[in-house]
Design brief:
The complex is a heterodimer of chains A (about 120) and B (about 100). Chain A is of the alpha+beta class and about 120 residues long. Chain A has one domain: Alpha-D-Glucose-1,6-Bisphosphate, Chain A, domain 4. Chain A is built from 3 helices and 5 strands. Chain A has a 5-stranded antiparallel β-sheet with strand order 1-5-4-3-2, covered by helices on one side. With about 100 residues, chain B is of the alpha+beta class. Chain B is about 65% helix and about 15% strand. In chain B, α1 packs antiparallel against α4, α1 crosses α5 and α2 packs across α4. Chain B is elongated and about 70 Å long. Classes of the chains: A alpha+beta (about 120), B alpha+beta (about 100). At the A-B interface, β1, α1, α2, β5 and α3 of A face α2 and α5 of B.
């Protein structure tokens, strides 16, 4: 997680949750597009396709803030069993266009939301 | 708190439009006013609010002043973190509701 350091900043959110469901089921809820849509709608994502996926363990999506300046980020969901057969879900959310400088040349296009992008 | 300043600064549609324009590159106040029906004093005031929130900074070149998105982006990052810190618990609540539904 500390690898996401850009220009000396470390700006990740790391959140842990205990979910009262087995890991296989949580995995389906976060990786199957139909289930994922029910709690993390496509409108929040740059692309409904994951950036990467390790079945049963980890999946990553690219997200875009819905407010100016529409900062893009990567969210990683990690699924692990706990001793009671439930699931420990870790959410790691990091800014993906950290250096605001890199964003500067981009045109101030007010219609950047891509809400209608197909899955 | 700086986060409140950010939300207040961007809650105003005119300031939000100004900020978006600057996100595309630095500009002087005259160029910023193009397409926006606001007076020069009003523009100065909006820029002042954006500067106080550390979203925008002023860059002097001789007798010209340009405005640009604060390249450190510290205010932006603080605002982003605050937003998503509140966002994920809500999403996880929705996930938990879904997990219950999936139990046939």
């Amino acid at each position: 997680m500390t690898d996401s350091t850009v220009d000396g900043h470390t700006e990740d959110l790391v959140l842990d949750y205990e979910l009262d469901a087995p890991p296989e089921k949580v995995w389906r809820a976060i990786s199957n597009p139909v289930f994922r849509e029910r709690w993390l709608p496509k409108a929040e994502l740059v692309d409904a396709e994951p950036v990467s996926s390790t079945p049963g363990e980890e999946i990553r999506y690219r997200m875009r803030d819905d407010e100016p300046p529409f900062l893009e980020s990567i969210v990683t969901f990690q699924v692990k069993p706990d001793t009671a057969g439930r699931t420990r879900l870790r959410i790691i959310h990091e800014l993906a266009d950290m250096t605001i400088k890199q964003r500067m040349p981009r045109a101030a296009n007010s219609n950047r939301r891509c809400l209608m992008r197909a899955a | 708190m700086i986060q409140n300043d950010i939300f207040k600064a961007l809650a105003d549609p005119t300031r939000c439009a100004i900020f978006e324009k600057l996100a595309g590159g630095s500009m002087n106040a005259t160029a910023l006013r193009e397409g926006l029906a606001i007076s020069q004093p009003a523009m100065s005031q909006h820029l002042q609010v954006l500067r106080n929130a550390r979203l925008v900074r002023e860059e002097r070149q001789g007798r010209f002043v340009n405005y640009e998105v604060d390249p450190d982006g510290l205010a932006l990052i603080a605002g982003w973190l605050a937003k998503y810190r509140a966002y994920w618990p809500q999403r996880v609540d929705a996930l938990q509701a879904l997990l219950k539904d999936m139990d046939q």
